[in-house]
Design brief:
By secondary structure, the protein is of the alpha+beta class. The protein has one helix and four strands, in the order αββββ. A two-stranded antiparallel ribbon has the order 1-4. A two-stranded antiparallel sheet has the order 2-3.
């Protein structure tokens, strides 16, 4: 009986640790720097899969230089499935 209780507690703790690690990824707060000179736009950060680390890693947002004729607004479309 003691072994069963010990095993149950161990499995519960392992599951709690695993869930805690996965939930930390969603708690990251994005950081936006002050606006730089004109002709630049902010590209927000995103989560990217890292095959080497076997997990998602955060790629920080950044300012990129643009040309006024090459900037195109693309409306985001969401659909329910």
């Amino acid at each position: 009986m003691k072994r069963v209780i010990t095993l149950t507690v161990f499995i519960t703790l392992v599951l709690i640790v695993m869930l805690a690690k996965t939930s930390q990824a969603h708690k990251r707060i994005p950081y936006v720097q002050a606006a730089p000179p004109a002709m630049r736009i902010w590209v927000p950060g995103f989560w990217k899969w890292s095959p080497r680390l076997h997990r998602h890693v955060w790629v920080d947002g950044r300012w990129v230089t643009t040309h006024p004729r090459k900037v195109v607004y693309v409306r985001v479309r969401r659909s329910r499935q």
